[in-house]
Amino acid sequence: MSALSAFNRSQMERFQRHFSLAGFGIEAQAELLRARVAVIGAGALGSPVLTYLAAAGVGTIDLIDDDYVERSNLHRQVIHSEESLGRPKTASAAEVMRGLHPEVVVHEHRVRIAAHNALDLLAGADIVVDGSDNFTTRYVVSDACEILGTPLVTGSILRFYGQVGLFWSRLPDGSRGPTYRDLYPEEPEADAAPSCAEAGVLGVLPGVIGSLMATETIKHLTGIGESLLGRVITFDALTADFRTLNLRPDPQREPVTQMTDTEDAGESCAVPAPAGPDADPVTAAGDRQDHAGAGPEELDFNPFTGEPKQPDDLSPAEFRRELEAGRLGRIIDVREPHEYQAGAVPGAVNIPLGAVLDGSTDLPGLQESTSEQPVVLYCAHGVRSRQALAAISRSHPEAAVKNLLGGYELLHHD
């Protein structure tokens, strides 16, 4: 039977440009029509993903989201409109998707994906696309995909920065492939990054990242091009720079074999950090360039947030050099006491962020600090310490203060 027989007349007209596309054609289009894709989130990243997958001709889409449309969503969640306000996001998105491709089968799951239901929700999908907005969901989805052996495309955004990757725990040849936990082994604390409401996000950024997610999904389903598997792309909208992280599975990491309940970390727009031992940062401006031996200390951006290195940041390499040369003043750990007790930079004094912000504790070394002997602040991922630095700069503008880029975790994983 010809592959063309899978399409009705309206579909033949709708997908004609795909039919005539060299290297794609009728066979690839038929693969899309047969495919089943599970998409988590009908928000900022889900908007371009769902729009393009439906328009491209994916036959069945499982849409998982328990949220409702609000006006503050509309500057970036472009699948919705003013007429959608108050509606479930799944219903609003499904209506648009069916308008683009009336034959698409959309299963609306108006639930929050969690450890207790993830395996059931994702079973049967040819590929999973995660556009969720919090760390807890990302780990739940990643663990479920690792157990099921299902490929996973994931994306994240923060302010002007975004990231997208393709993970697959069980490759067709039976070997072990890279997963989200090989990039970022442990779920960070809830305040490791601000929410979109707190930090904001450039409205067009999800369009860029979500379109890349949809592209990788279509490539995987049809077998065209070079897969993103084993690589993670980050994008800086302010400079139009793309960077690539090469990723391999960590042979020391125990595979995930069962779902584990985790505490809800709340909304977060943060991009993940390349903390795995084989995460190899690669700088690119449109093209990938392999840099042998590159490591976390060489990064000129904070991989936990995607933000570029600031003049008052010290990279892990710079921190070590200055520390060994005796060119640093006091080192202040602004994490909580239990974090400090679990492991800290030798000689650091623990003053939690709250005490820094409310001024209830004198900060050692500020009066004596100079550009040659600055005070250095750090936290887990370089987020809270930047808050502390901003507060100290306002209250003690004469003090010389630096921030440890990527915090203790990046230093520790070097």
From TrEMBL:
Pfam families: Rhodanese (PF00581), ThiF (PF00899). Residues 246-315 are annotated as: Disordered. Residues 270-286 have a biased composition (Low complexity). It comes from the Bacteria. The keyword ATP-binding applies. Residues 330-414 form the Rhodanese domain. Keywords: ATP-binding, Nucleotide-binding, Transferase. One of its GO terms (molecular function) is nucleotidyltransferase activity. GO terms for cellular component: cytosol. PROSITE patterns: RHODANESE_3. This is Rhodanese domain-containing protein. It comes from Kocuria coralli.
